[in-house]
Amino acid sequence: MADKDEIQELIAKRVAKELHNGNTVTLGIGLPTKAVKYLPDNVKVLIQSENGVLGVGAYQSGEKIDYRIVNAGGTGVTINEGGCFMDSLTTFGMMRGGHVDVTVLGALQVDGQGNLANWCIPHKFTPGMGGAMDLVVGTKKLIVAMEHTAKGMPKILSHCSLPLTAAHKVDMIITEKAVFEIKNRKLYLSEISPISSLEDIKSTTAAEFEIKSNIVI
Fold first, then answer.
1. By C-alpha distance, which of 82, 61, 58, 81 is closest to 71?
2. What is the dihedral of CA 106, 108, 110, 111, to 10 degrees?
């Protein structure tokens, strides 16, 4: 059985295949940010961070971190050549205005209609919704990258029970077990991970799904 680091690596590698040369991409805090480590050398993407950075590079390394240059999660990052900084009005205008090609976010829950819940668990402290709602409604493609279950409970449901970030906006779900596509508010299994099986996916997915005809089982 894969450990947490191996699971996240597997997910991040698969996410990287959805990022194409020239894309403007926003990566959510945590697991999604790892995808850029697995991009082929010939694939160059422009990373946008909702706190007002365009052209985010690798994480800063070494003992001295310049915390004046951070991503939306507060992690010290570098800026690639040609990168720039912008105010909140401009960066949120970019997000809302359809200028981001691909957004990759984590999730608490996703359902078969493409609904996303990723910002709040009732009665638990929440620092705020951040820019997720703006990103989700403005992006051209929304990928949810997450572990398939949480404490053994499914995260892909027939209906989200937590407060929604946005409705009917998710295009793809990538987990350590499978890849799902959502089209016309229907869930389709398009890939099975090497560490999983159709039976495993069925037993840990609490939403009905169809199997794409070209899938290898």
1. 58
2. 180
Which amino acid is present at 9?
A: E
Q: Is 63 among the catalytic positions? A: no
pLDDT, tens digit, 9 for 90 and up, residues 93-114: 999 999 999 999 999 999 999 9
pTM, two decimals, is 0.94
Show the tokens assigned to 127. 């620092």
Beta bridge partners of 102: 25, 141
Give the span between the Cα atoms of 13 and 36, in whole angstroms.
9
Find the catalytic residue in 6, 9, 18, 50: 50
Nearest alpha carbon to residue 24 among 51, 66, 55, 2: 55
Q: Which residues contact 14 (CB under 8 A, 6 or more apart)?
A: 174, 179, 191, 193
For residue range 49-76, list pLDDT tens digits in order.
Answer: 999 999 999 889 888 889 899 988 888 9
